[in-house]
Amino acid sequence: MEMKLLFEPRAVAVIGASASPEKIGFRIVENILRSGYRGCVFPINPRGGEILKLPAYADLADIEEEIDVAVIAIPAERVLSAVAACGAKGVKHLVIITSGFSEVGDLETERRIVQSAREHGMRILGPNIFGIYSAASSLDATFGPGGIAPGPVAIITQSGALGIAMIGKTATESVGLSALVSVGNKADIDEADLLEYLADDERTRAILMYIEGVKNGDRLARTLSEVTRRKPVVVIKSGRSKRGSMAAASHTGSLAGADEVFDSVMRQCGVLRAESVQEAFTWVRYLATSPRPPGEEAVIVTNGGGIGVMATDACEKHGVRLYDDQPVLAEAFSDVMPDFGSSKNPVDLTGQAKAEDYGKALTAVLKEDRMHAALALYCETALFDTERFAGLLREIYASYRDRKPIVFSLFGGERIESAIRDLRGEGIPVFGDVYEAVSSLGALYRAARREQEGPDAAVALNLPIDEIHRVLAGARAAGRTFLLAPEAAQVAAHLGLGMPRSVLARSLDEAVRAAADIGYPVVMKVVSKDIVHKSDAGGVALDLESEAEVIDAYQAIRRSCLAHVPDAVIDGIEVVEMVCPGVETIVGARQDPSFGPVVMFGLGGVYVEVMKDVAFRAAPVGRATARAMVSDLRSYPILLGVRGEKRKDIDAVADVVVKLSHLIDRCREIADIEVNPLVVYAHGEGTRAVDLRILIKQPKGVS
Ligand code: ACO
């Protein structure tokens, strides 16, 4: 496998190794030696001599052994020639620590470095990184603080400083690492490459990624989709507020803020997105060590009603289902339940419960096959012996840790705080905050459900792509980056989208005849390549009931458009069947700058950008995913039918979503396509695509 030698090199050279302890090149050699790396280490320094008791080589070419990884920590201007030397030596992977390339605007040198590496078949991690740690070879080739404990969590980070800080954090949180990789500028190796190795790495049981920006998002999404079926991936992404670069071009564009798309695609790929570094740590730590629940039914055991209710609320939020077979619960806790307690879930033993009662109740949950996970909550009380209780937790956890998921949440004063610290230090999932405990169990449930999902069904759809390409080529040949209404109508016809009947009228007489043919009421719209925002230019008239209204509208549209854009060439006025009212939705698809083709569905109409009730997915999607997009909306109940209304034709909506998603995937020259509104009627009565807007990419070289 391509990345294996990066994580498991047989020999490592450090170019820029130094005998000066304050230098990064010294730290790296020191960490490699201290971490107990099992392969050979070769310091490279023009002065030769000794570095940390190892002979230093003045030239890489002087080494006889094969080198799998060269760590480069020399000033930026010398890196390119060092890369060439590595190529000549047959090095497999470069770990370029040095900063000062694309992150400060020097794209050219970075490009040349990558090109030189490719010519020699080398892969590059970095540049601008703090290095790599791999438990598989006991290799700490970073300039971090050292002392990384091996364990089941892999971390991939784009932020160097945060990554180094995470080394310290893993120590205080008792999280052992299988790998820690800094990806920096991602000039060559990116998250997807690393994930492919980590997915197969038996040491790695959960993966944490810190991402700032996504490159090659469609490949990342494909890889994550695979990996999350085998092990959980938690992501923290900064930059939630950034907007897509094509924001203003369409509704889809303005709703497709970078973060909205990232969030949706991550969920589609089964990735767990954490809000903070702390949450991410809490989750991966638990995910890496907990067994998967044998079923969906969790039970809360508490000695305090208040935290029981808080936990119940949190369970709802985090998708943890609570077992509620009352006779079974009453039977299970009959021995320990005081008269005024409650065996309803949350099982409340009340503040009177002693440590032993609590232990018995918790054991009852863990023994009972119909109960699949335990949330053990405890509030400090005067009657309770905290030390005895901590001992009981240890015993119970040791007996059941491999059989069922358990999370503990303890709340109280100094004695409780110190018990939490001790128990956590021993790797027991004890939390001070009830929400942390429940969110961890929720993350485990989501990961477990994902691991049980089968592979995505292949999504294939036959579309007359050649015919559509021809329509797009016509618009392009005319120097346009958007399709005129008749061209869009042709694409709609090829896609089988039900659009209202329409005729392009080039004179007043033609407009009158067209309206009579189509039948009243009708809508009229200007057709002009010079007028993109028709309504703003007064180029649209709705609900025209008679010949007289058509005549007035025809003249008013021409007048108003020419007043708005005096030089506009008006090709004619489109007379269109007026569509019956229904639920207005919007379906859009676009080439996302990070993830490539994406598709959007949302509640449409004039409030679309206020409500922002939309769902995104990476395209193409199949019917099941399209239906899931519909049910993701807050306004889904409107489509299900409220106040005695009939259910709407959700299958017909899904059909349009699927078609647009396939089109945007197969016709990459389409920048943005949007049906707005897509009017949805009652179940079985289909949809009407009232307006279809298509933007095409500018040919290269045109600005
Ligand atoms: N081959 C081998 N050794 C060389 C070569 C070469 N071609 N050229 C120079 N050297 C030696 C130097 O002689 C020196 O050794 P010495 O101490 O014996 O003299 C050693 O390599 C280092 O070279 P210096 O010129 O002293 O460079 P310095 O160590 O000051 O800086 C560094 C090099 C660390 C790579 C710097 O350029 C840099 O990029 N720093 C930033 C690193 C960073 O922060 N990366 C991102 C991490 S993530 C985060 O944000 C934390």
Count of beta strands: 30
| Euclidean distance between termini CA atoms | 42 Å
Kindly report the average pLDDT value.
91
Rg, please? 31 Å
Oligomer: single chain
Q: Ions, cofactors, ligands: which are bound? A: acetyl coenzyme *A
Give a quick account of the main beta sheet: strands, pairing sense, barrel closure: 7 strands, mixed
Q: Share of helix among residues?
A: 25-40%
What is the structural class? alpha/beta
Q: Give the spatial strand order of the biggest sheet.
A: 9-8-11-10-12-13-14
Roughly what fraction of the amino acids lie in strands? 15-25%
Shape assignment? flat
Counting DSSP H or I runs of 4 or more residues, the number of helices is 24
| Parts with pLDDT < 50 across at least 5 consecutive residues | 241-250
How does this structure look, described?
The strands form six sheets. The protein has a seven-stranded mixed beta sheet, sandwiched between helices. Strands 15, 16, 17, 18, 19 and 20 form a six-stranded parallel beta sheet that branches. Helix 11 packs parallel to helix 16 (434-452) and helix 22 packs across helix 24 (650-666). Residues 241-250 have low confidence and may be disordered. Strand 8 and strand 9 (139-142) form a beta hairpin. With 703 residues, it is of the alpha/beta class. Helices cover 39% and strands 21% of the residues. It contains 24 helices and 30 strands. Bound molecules: acetyl coenzyme *A. Acetyl coenzyme *A binds at residues 15-16, 18-20, 23-25, 44-47, 73-76, 78, 82, 97-100, 128-130, 160-161, 164.
